[in-house]
Amino acid sequence: MLCCWFSYTDITERRISNKLTYPAILSLLVLRIGFSPEYLLGLAPGALLFLIFMISPRALGAGDVKLVAERAVVTLLLMCIFVFLYLGGRKLLSVETQISVPLAPFLTVRLIWAVVTL
Q1: pLDDT digits 0-9 by tens, 3-14
Q2: Cα separation, 37 vs 31, whole angstroms
Q3: I want to staple 3 with a disulfide (CB 3.0 to 4.6 A). Which of 43, 92, 108, 115 is the partner?
Q4: Is 68 exposed, middle or buried (0-12, 13-18, 19+ CB in 10 A)?
Q5: How many Cα atoms sit within 13 Å of 22 on the Cβ side?
Q6: CB 24: neighbour CB atoms within 10 A?
Q7: Which residue has the higher pLDDT, 30 or 97?
């Protein structure tokens, strides 16, 4: 549900609220580390994306970094595929090309896909 809300605010306001993401991330970290301490190694890709955000905030949004904290490589790959399909569909329909694309909806599609394919 939170990802759907993040998608909505990313599309309409081009921002993802820290008031909801920080408590959600903290809760997930505590649960995941409690059940499997090796989960800490999986945070490396998210840390790399955070570093990219810190160096160049315009290259990647902070909300996108927060949403990619888990399974970053697969998530990014599938997100890119969804964005490619979205932009390809816009081109086929002769809709004006966007300069920037909100990524939260595509990350949400990836997360929903992960839940459905469990």
Answers
A1: 788 888 888 888
A2: 10
A3: 108
A4: buried
A5: 3
A6: 15
A7: 30
> Are 105 and 61 a contacting pair, CB within 8 Å?
no
Q: pLDDT tens across 62-96, in order?
A: 777 666 655 666 677 777 888 888 888 888 888 88
What gap in Å lies between CA 43 and CA 104, rounded to an integer?
19
